Amino acid sequence: MIHLLPDADQQQVVDALAGLLQDRAPLERLKASERFPDTANAEVLGELAGMGIYGLALPEDAGGVGYGPAEETLCAIEMGRFLVTPSAAAATLAAAMLADAGRGDEAAALIGGSATACFASMKGKRHYLVDARDAALIVLVQGDHITLYPRAAAGSLQPVEGLDWTISLHQTTLDTAQAAVQGSPARLRQALLLIAGMQVGLTEAVCAMAVDYAKIREQFGQPIGAFQAIKHKCADLAVAAETARAQLLLAALAGAADLPEADFLIRAATLVATEAAQASTRENIQIHGGIGYTAESRAHLFLKRAHLNEWLFGGLWAQREALLRAKAA
Amino acid sequence: MIHLLPDADQQQVVDALAGLLQDRAPLERLKASERFPDTANAEVLGELAGMGIYGLALPEDAGGVGYGPAEETLCAIEMGRFLVTPSAAAATLAAAMLADAGRGDEAAALIGGSATACFASMKGKRHYLVDARDAALIVLVQGDHITLYPRAAAGSLQPVEGLDWTISLHQTTLDTAQAAVQGSPARLRQALLLIAGMQVGLTEAVCAMAVDYAKIREQFGQPIGAFQAIKHKCADLAVAAETARAQLLLAALAGAADLPEADFLIRAATLVATEAAQASTRENIQIHGGIGYTAESRAHLFLKRAHLNEWLFGGLWAQREALLRAKAA
Amino acid sequence: MELRTTQEERLFREKARTWLEENVPKEPRPPHGREANDHDRAWQRRQFDGGWAGLSWPKEYGGRGLPLDLQLIWFEEYARAEAPEATNTLYVGLNHAAPTLIASGTPEQQAFHLEKILSAENVWCQGFSEPGAGSDLAALRTRAEIDGDDLVVNGSKIWTSNGHYSHYQELLVRTDPDAPKHKGITWVIGQMDLPGVDIRPIRNMAGGDHFCEVFYNDVRIPLSSVVGKVNDGWRVAMSTLGFERGTASMAHQIELTQFVENLIDYARDNPGPDGRRMAIEDDTIRSRLAAARAETSALKAITLLSISRARRGDAPGPEGSITRLFHTELMQRVHRLAYDLTGSGGLEMEGHRGWSRQYLEQMRQTIAGGTSEIQRNIIGERHLGLPRQPVIAKGA
Amino acid sequence: MELRTTQEERLFREKARTWLEENVPKEPRPPHGREANDHDRAWQRRQFDGGWAGLSWPKEYGGRGLPLDLQLIWFEEYARAEAPEATNTLYVGLNHAAPTLIASGTPEQQAFHLEKILSAENVWCQGFSEPGAGSDLAALRTRAEIDGDDLVVNGSKIWTSNGHYSHYQELLVRTDPDAPKHKGITWVIGQMDLPGVDIRPIRNMAGGDHFCEVFYNDVRIPLSSVVGKVNDGWRVAMSTLGFERGTASMAHQIELTQFVENLIDYARDNPGPDGRRMAIEDDTIRSRLAAARAETSALKAITLLSISRARRGDAPGPEGSITRLFHTELMQRVHRLAYDLTGSGGLEMEGHRGWSRQYLEQMRQTIAGGTSEIQRNIIGERHLGLPRQPVIAKGA
To answer: Where does the Acyl-CoA dehydrogenase/oxidase N-terminal domain start and stop, copy by copy (chains A, B) (predicted)?
Structure first.
């Protein structure tokens, strides 16, 4: 039996997180027309630590909360919806890899929020660090590998102007000989699910944003949502959101059950969710018209994040190749 | 100065051909729900010979009419519009190649209609013959080459059920050692323009067909063309037709003037026209709804021809490669 | 949210696999026409006799009353066993007519018809669409006047799949021409061999005659054949359509998954459209194959989401149109990919394994049973709550 | 239909090439803002002084009265010389305001303004769109009341490109609120430094402040600044829009052609998004590059078709929307391709040669100056003659 709706307990976890984010990290915190200060991301990360979110799926004896991939993936959706920095997912992954390696104290520091982690992404032979701040640990997902690096593995950080204004970006070179932990295949799956989850969350967010706007914005004497050109775009957003969510949750459950087709389903989820996120955030801008092109609307933040997230798992090309290699059900 | 509208003389040629086709080969001749007998294609070919169309662009001293690529391309559009068998283009090309080779008598037989030609297309190491009938000559366009074969170069003909019901299809093996004439680069260009011209003609035909239907077919109490879903599809058809025609005519003129960018423009024309033809014929079916799916509507004949034409020049992949190799303006 | 394999599921899967291994027909199913129908009926009868028909039908109607999860397992095993297409000429009877009779039929109608549908003794077709109505289903004009104990039907229907070898028809007729468009319609069981019924197959663009046009000339149908109440046919029909748009196409989806895997295998072993290398080595093909694989998985996932909603007790809602829209457009993308894979081989009607013909046949997906445009309207208006499109009354 | 190079064209091309070689600015054009405008003005002034401005403007208005063919040759040579973007902050003045003044202005207006536009002494901006109106341009509500010899303007405009460093504005105001929507509008020359004009730049998603919002608080504009007649502004404005949608974007198109060639060169020499091989070796990239190359050629071809129609004497018609729609959507496809080519480099705002920023900036193409949806309406209704979409009156 495969059940893709949250049960009451799972819904409670989601609601708690959504409540926290709505309260402490509402989208309104993002001044869409300005770059977002690093400190603000740090605050959100601290709030999430307070809720124990980075250890949500770790066993209690490893300092976690004892939930599983299903709950964690549902939470990733909420983080995507609120455009939480991906460093939250990085902290989750770093804690898990450290716990796997028997380095419980370091894991606890991440879970408790006294240490933070960030993602890296390859840029030729160099690397980008995403929302690096004072992160103690760096998570790199590339090909079939997930690797945890200590901050010391990064050379000097050169700040660059990022596409996504809500996140700082630096160039550096990771000394790959200095890996702290090579993550297990299970951690790779977890990373892919967390990133795909953020893509699904922002896809759902822009679907709702576009539909809301189409109901209130009037042109030619009626709400633009009455026109098929807009209505049908909204319908396509709904299809994208529904398919991306369903595929993600199926993949999360398959991963949790360690089904033979889990890798296939998870790569399919990253692909479907990323295509959905990039297409939907683009259409949301078009539906918003002129206002959607301005920095004052938040529409652009979602588009930029959909591009950023793609590179947290090494790009769509790598997903396609992994998907073709994976064994289907 | 580049002028892309026909002058009075050119318009007269087009009108004469369109008049002949409307009179002797109207679309109504094609019983859409039945396979079209070979003999009917032969009749149309005979009518066209009577007009001298196969020698339209050959000099008068070569038995032609003395027009140029511009007029010939305009005529190819009309042939595409009326779904004339591509053997008309094959006869034109065969006559030209024979004339180039100093085989004036054989060229004259084609121009006069007492001999006919047909196209071949590669199928792995074997070949398809398109509307072969009793064709004396076979034209093969493949890669950067155009080659004329005598009928004797073809092994035994094995009839196969073709996608396009208006054209017979056979499998055979061409003995490539038996080439009658290797065509010049100019003949290759001519072939590409003729095929692209047929694609443009059928693109224009389905645009008109779809728009006409959208004006008269009523649903929910109004013509379906009033709904944006249909109206915008029609707009896209108009864009496809306009761009494909303009690119084709520009390419034809550049070819006639032997500009350095002629090959580039001609390959761009085959690409744009074929994409336009395949997308437009597909959308025309969708706009027609249920009736468009039936064999009784002619919509499917255009779709099938758009696919057939693609393989007369060896497929889109070959066009893309040639386009990337060609020197731009 | 959970995924677990129960003992019941495991056992069911084993039994299904064993039975299918022993019973799947060896001969290929004819691609279309009456031969296909004969094949479908023989195969359905064998499943019926083996106790494998109507798995999720309620027990009191001859089914086995199993949950949708087991139905899904059946289809998975069915596809694995390479059994003949499950979405066949019996689809209307099994997936439209029977659910309608179960939901709205009289005990007599149920007793007479349901088992005969399940055992393929009777073939059913649909009689909803009309030449003038198209997507505007409710604009139907086929009249039925009450005359004594009969309805007297005059008019015509179109797009009646398999009408020429069907025994019965789900027939929508207008019984009150003065009522608003959606009122005054009645759902009635039509018998195809009644005097005055004239059935003419319509050839489709792929050469098959799957669809028919049906003409009614003073056809007398007893009032006892009305399903639901007179003038309540729109509601009765909509409940059937809701069913179709939900989980009924599960078998189809699983077949599509198998088809995509076949494409990947083909691409590994055969030259691509460029004729120069194996198709899989062409990145444009690779990319389309990867997308097809991911999207057929997502199609299955949204169906599992529908099943989850059904399990919670939700009635089939407008989100069924999401499944339908995604499914039909994906079908077309996948079959266009198959067509393109064969390169110039696509000039033949059958192409490789019939892929050309199937490419043409899939054109109907985004048209029949409500065009993609209509599905997007439904999603926009009923699911997302966007305002209805403005309509000008005729003559305005 | 013909293509020939006249002696005049050959000579013109040679002269243009020589002049450009000697005069094209060496320093790169700043990407946006006032610095870009300063650069544009200096460069335009140099062209003006050299006799290369207003090539196709009538002679009596300071132009050279040359046919569009020569204008096209100029743009070709301009692109070949890698001169700064021709579609720059002076676009509105040169391509909207001046043609409007030529068509509908008084001799005094023409004498005062045209040369100052051509020499870049004055920068112009547009004042058509309003916050509430969007694509429904005619719904504008900025009021202008006649008071003595002045119009007194109150309201606001939005999407005013380069408003914050413009001297003049093409301003559409409502002078008769009781007239039907398209009547009662007046086209007037607004001076940006008049008392009561408040200009606020709007940051766009790429970080630039190309657009402004402009507020009018009892702004007095002399009636002598009205172009055409009071209440006849819609007609005046539409003729300008027709012009924009025709051949005015020729320079832009040629720049796009050059951009695509740059992409191909880049793809040959740089790793693609997969990071494993040169981008050009990835068939998905190859295929998109080939399509971009073919389609930019087709864009030039439809513009040549427009020029041919103009040569025949046709007025700019709704088919201008075809060029515009194809152009803007192609721009987005090409810039998305550029963005994708750089792989993870797209995480930087500038990316390679600013391609990320340009990718974001191109989002406006299908919105500003009439969305793609509006263009499709125009093509459908005015070009193809399809029925207008039904409109429900407000409150109905």
So the answer is: 8-102
